[in-house]
Every structure is written in structure tokens, then in C-alpha cells.
Amino acid sequence: MSLSVSPSTKRANRGTGRDRLKGYTGCVPEITPAAPALVMDFVNTLDIETGSDSIDSPGALRRWIEQRLGTRLRSLDEDAWRTMVETRESLRELLASHSGAEVNRNALRQLNRAGERAEIRPRWDDAGKATFEPHDAGPSGALGRIFSAVVAAQSDGTWDRLKVCPAEDCRYAFYDHSKNRSGRWCSMRVCGNRAKTRTYRQRHG
Ligand SMILES: [Zn+2]
Questions:
Q1: What is the pTM of this model?
Q2: Which one is the CATH code of 7-204: 2.40.160.210, 1.10.3300.10, 1.20.1510.10, 1.10.443.10?
């Protein structure tokens, strides 16, 4: 029996579009709550395995913000774009710590720097519940939306379930739906199996 899975199968298993929101499917597939789903989608704008990056230019980032956040930006300069791309990678580093990696200090420093650009303010709804909302509709507002999703996920207990696949060629963000939060790979059928195959080959090769 062959344990290897081709990269194309891997893509197929991950699904596309909204399917991806379901993330880890090793256990009960459920819809990922909105706050971690936004962070996950943002981190996954770069697919490390294929090298495809859906925010690889200021224009591409503007389109992503429009599609995912529903905010139409008139302009987005190079500097704001760079901050968003750096923020994405810092968040990826931070999520890796949910699977046991050390918290990356450089990533935290970058996030704090980016945070200074994010304009968010608290807003209370009719039921008296407060959330952070972006203060303006520009790029700093988009950054604010991402950061307020992080804060929301951290306060509602969903943050720790948001993880990054430890496979070096993957590093895909996924939501761990498993009961005991033990999910490790983006998809057990693919990355987990690949790792098992490697271990098997090392032992028996
Ligand atoms: Zn993976």
C-alpha cells in the first residue's frame, strides 16, 4: 500500500472558496466562527506550497479587501501593502505557537508596530455588547478589522483552535474542530500522511 499523496490530491482535498472555511476535516466538520475565519483567510492569502499569493501587489490587496471585507478603497500605497503582508506572516508565526512552537518575538514586535497604524474604536450594540470596529474605511481600517478579529477570537476562546500546519512546505492556517483541540495537520489525509510516510521511510528505508 502506498501512503504517498500527490500535491494535486492535496489541493483537491482542501477544497476551494467557502469550503476552506471548514478547515480541518479530520473530525466533525463545522463552520469556522467568523473571527478566526477572517484571520485564517488572511493568513491563507499566501499558499506556500504553490507559491500563489492573492495579495502580491497593492492592487491585489485592494481587491481582496473589497471581496473579503466589503470595503472599497480608493487607493492603497506601497507602504500600507507592505505592512499588511508583514502582518500576515507575523500572524502565521503567532498561530504556529498554538501547535507548540515558541512565540516569535520579532513577529510580536512587527504586530505592535502594525497595530499603531490600525485605527479601531469600541462600539456598543443595542444589547450593550461592545466590539472593536475600524475607525476609517482606508487601509488602516482593514488592518483594524483583522486585529479586532484577533481580539474577538482571543476573548471568545476560538483563538487557540486556529493553527498553522507544521509541514514546512505547507504552513497553511486551519481551524481545529477536534473535540480535544489535538489537531496538528491542515488535513490528516494529506500533510499528516506525508509526515508518516517520511517517518516510515526513515525507519525502514
Ligand atoms: Zn499542511
A1: 0.81
A2: 1.10.3300.10
